[in-house]
Amino acid sequence: MSPRLLVAIVLLLPSCAPSAVDPEAVETSIVDGEPSREPSAVVAITPRRVLCGDVATVLCSGTLIAADAVLSAAHCFDSMRPGLAYEVFMGASLGPESRSVAVLEVVTHPGFDRESRENDVAVLWLAKPLEGAQPEPLPRPGSPPPELQDFVTFAGFGATSAGLAPDGLKRVGAGRIGGLGAGKVQVDPDPS
């Protein structure tokens, strides 16, 4: 197993491990992460700006899995108003050095359950390929699943702790897999 694994990809791996995820575990933000330009495949997803002076506000993060496709979470789009347009930003921040592309379509898993967050997967199809990005390949069928205590690296543009709004910076954190269950991965701090 690669020592570097994006959480978005971990969530898609089959869950064949012996230890279950703690049912009391709470979803948390990336804490103690460091600002980073890498991995380049991690992008920010924002509501689409209408006017040139509009400021982009992070909605969620995603992982570029093809030049024109981003993997993200279905819950990011579940509560948004119908017809809301999105765009994807590539770079270390939402600043002027980042590149953006409009999202053509958001496809959420048809079995997504907002209460349990089962099948919490969405694919965003971009209006054009995001140039200069290196997509993160999905695991091939038959790839070994993650194991307990595997080191993982996760990255995103989200809040750094509960109650804080995202600041528009890409951050990278590190942890270890503390539990695996059907469709769930528990990541324990190490140190993030």
Question: Secondary-structure map with pairings?
Answer:
Elements: H1 7-10, E1 34-35, E2 42-47, E3 60-66, E4 69-72, H2 75-78, E5 86-90, E6 99-108, E7 122-126, E8 151-156, E9 171-181, E10 184-189
Antiparallel strand pairs: 1-9, 2-3, 2-5, 3-4, 4-7, 5-6, 6-7, 8-9, 9-10
Q: What's a concise summary of this model?
A:
The chain has 192 residues and is mostly beta strands.
Describe what you observe in this structure.
It is globular and about 45 Å long. The protein has two helices and ten strands, in the order αββββαββββββ. The chain has helices at residues 7-10, 75-78, and strands at residues 34-35, 42-47, 60-66, 69-72, 86-90, 99-108, 122-126, 151-156, 171-181, 184-189. The chain is mainly beta.
Order of helices and strands: HEEEEHEEEEEE
Largest sheet: 6 strands, antiparallel, barrel
Which overall shape is indicated by the principal axes computed on the Cα atoms? globular
Q: List low-confidence stretches.
A: 1-27
Give the class from helix and strand content and strand pairing: mainly beta
